Amino acid sequence: MKKKPIVSTIIVLFIGALLFNGCSKNENNTEESKVIPVEVTTVTTHSIDRTLEFTGTIEAWKKTNLGAQMPGTIKKIYVNAGDEVKKGDLLIQMDDAQLTQARVQYELAKLDYERMKPLLKEGSISPNQFDKIKGGYESAKAGYELTLKNTQIRAPFSGLITTKWMNEGDVFTLMPGAAGSPTILTLMQFNPVKILINIPESDISSISMGQKAMVRVDVIPNQVFQGEITRIDPAIDPMTRTFGAEIKVDNPQQILRPGMFSRVSIFVGRENIVAVPREALIRQLGTSHYYAFVVQNGIAKRRNVKLGQRFDELFEIKSGLNVGEAIVIEGQYLLKDGMKVNVTSPTEMKQ
């Protein structure tokens, strides 16, 4: 009496499985028989200007923190932040007490030296005696010149005073300050400026000294600055696997300032590439990979593609597509690999 419900259940499950398989087959047959209308274009080659793109930060061509090599009181500062100066201009006058002492020692040593030169010629003193006097004179002279240099601090190059760290009357010491090193003024040269970039080892063969570069700055839109590669490091950085390089950019109006973010484009040649329109490419969800569909004998074939650079509405194809193939540009989101398609209006991609 208890076996009948079990047999009935088995029969019901068997009939259900048959019905499900029948439905699935019908659905698969419907899917396979469906013909999707698509538009295609032909995969072709295009002549393009190949460029390498880099980012970098603008830096002053020259920068120095000005201070003395000996402690002392700041007697006079002749400039303020924002002042332009010429090479050799007197910027800072330190207390000259040490300078006076050094000058007296130098002048006395010079008198002795001048007085002994004729005596050496007469033979009144030995060469050894004269060499000692000459050595004392040269030592006093060097001491005086060093003290003078550290008492009257002049601009080592033309540029702009960017920061004034100390004031008149302050005591300058050799202890590091806010600028890092002991500093009274910071001087920078803004014309030209330089941009430091890192070149991957795969691109280094395309870069050479003197090569031209186009520089764009986000905060100065619609303006392109011309630059030139002036330095390429001879050795690769083992941490980043890149070569450091320096780009010199003329800046006569001093529009470009240190710290600005820049984008650098370097033209490396003209070449023919395989490229397709952006609308032909489909991105796999959750990844950075792309694929496309080509049509072969009325059947859609999925192709994984590797992309290169973008040129306006064209994307370079590194691998995955061949010249002459018909690639779907309309209706591709309805396709699966192996589906039948009907090409409704084939077009030739503009070259």
From TrEMBL:
Residue span(s) of domain YknX-like C-terminal permuted SH3-like: 274-343
One Pfam family of this chain: Beta-barrel_RND_2
Single GO MF descriptor: efflux transmembrane transporter activity
Domain Multidrug resistance protein MdtA-like barrel-sandwich hybrid, residue spans: 64-171
Gene Ontology CC, one term: efflux pump complex
InterPro entries listed in its UniProt record: Beta-barrel_RND_2, MdtA-like_BSH, RND_pump_MFP, YknX-like_C
Residue stretches making up the CusB-like beta-barrel domain: 196-266
Family of the protein in this entry: Belongs to the membrane fusion protein (MFP) (TC 8.A.1) family.
Name listed for the protein in its UniProt record: Efflux RND transporter periplasmic adaptor subunit
Lineage: Bacteria, Pseudomonadati, Calditrichota, Calditrichia, Calditrichales
